[in-house]
Amino acid sequence: MKNENIKLEVGKSYLNRMGEVVKIVSKEEGPLDIFPCLSDKGGYYESNGQYSFYEHPKDLIEEVPEPKQTTVGTFTMADQFLSIKAQGWGDDVRLMLKKGAELREMYDLMYIDVEMNGFTMMIEEGTDLKWMAVEYENWQSNRAKKEETK
Questions:
Q1: pLDDT tens for residues 77-95?
Q2: Cβ distance 82 to 124 under 8 Å?
Q3: Could you report the per-residue pLDDT of 99-126, keeping only the tens digit for each?
Q4: Burial label, 63 (beta-carbon count in 10 A; 0-12, 13-18, 19+)
Q5: Domain boundaries defined on the chain
Q6: What's the whole-model pTM score?
Q7: Which of 22, 79, 95, 132 lies 20 to 30 Å from 59 when distance is taken between CA atoms?
């Protein structure tokens, strides 16, 4: 059974009938010169994803989209998650929270975890950044007092 809706490309991943993800690693001459696409699992495929002359569980039936990944400076965003560690902006918690909120909005992320000096804050839609900054400053002040009493 030919799948005319799919055309295999080197570097892309596909789902087979068994639910496994298979990546095409090269396009070359295969057995009988009919199956030119080689997978990362060692199987050869026709350009339309067919594994054999008949319907087979290893037939590739649809392309698997690559996960969205964007790198901005030292921040890496993958899918719907971003974690920022406070480095390079000093101890300016308001600036860090503002930049984190801007990045969350810009990349339409569900949330961002911002960590400063071991204190983690989660920025979601509607987060009160001023309140969060005060919480951080209170935590930092209490931590400093504990250090003084040691």
A1: 555 555 555 555 667 888 8
A2: no
A3: 888 888 887 888 888 878 778 888 889 9
A4: middle
A5: 13-64, 69-148
A6: 0.45
A7: 79
